[in-house]
Amino acid sequence: VQVVESGGGLAQPGGSLRLSCAVSGLTNENYAISWVRQAEGKGREWVSGVYSDGRGLRYADSVKGRFTISRDNAKNTVYLQMNDLKLEDTALYSCSITFNSLNYYGKGTAVTVSS
């Protein structure tokens, strides 16, 4: 299983970015997706998660109402739409796939929110 994130970059406070997580190598469509982030000098923070069939959609309180996770199962791609970005959203964002009880991570995509 391969996981590749993209879409990070520089945004101003109040701005938006959309992250993508492309997954390949799955042998069926039953998996769970999570977005996590890690700011410099801090621990990993879970951001959002959902099952591939749409069940179990959840968000961390810190991003609720601002971030939206979505899926394109035909493309095996998961998106994280991030709106109203704040300085504290600056972090390396990674996508985690749980498939057959194993976790797979990508290398992440960096998001910097700065004025």
Task: Explain this structure.
With 115 residues, the chain is mostly beta strands. The protein has no helices and 11 strands. It has strands at 2-6, 9-11, 17-24, 32-38, 44-51, 58-59, 67-72, 77-82, 91-99, 102-105, 109-113. Strands 2, 4, 5, 6, 9, 10 and 11 form a 7-stranded mixed β-sheet that branches. Strands 1-3-8-7 form a 4-stranded antiparallel β-sheet, with no helix packed on it. A hairpin with a 2-residue loop joins strand 9 (91-99) and strand 10.
Separate helix tally: 0
Succession of helices and strands: EEEEEEEEEEE
Major sheet summary line: 7 strands, mixed
Pairing-aware structural class of the strands and helices? Answer: mainly beta
Structural features:
115 residues; mainly beta; 7-stranded mixed β-sheet
Short structural summary:
The chain has 115 residues and is mainly β. It has strands at 2-6, 9-11, 17-24, 32-38, 44-51, 58-59, 67-72, 77-82, 91-99, 102-105, 109-113.
Topology, element by element:
Elements: E1 2-6, E2 9-11, E3 17-24, E4 32-38, E5 44-51, E6 58-59, E7 67-72, E8 77-82, E9 91-99, E10 102-105, E11 109-113
Parallel strand pairs: 2-11
Antiparallel strand pairs: 1-3, 3-8, 4-5, 4-9, 5-6, 7-8, 9-10, 9-11
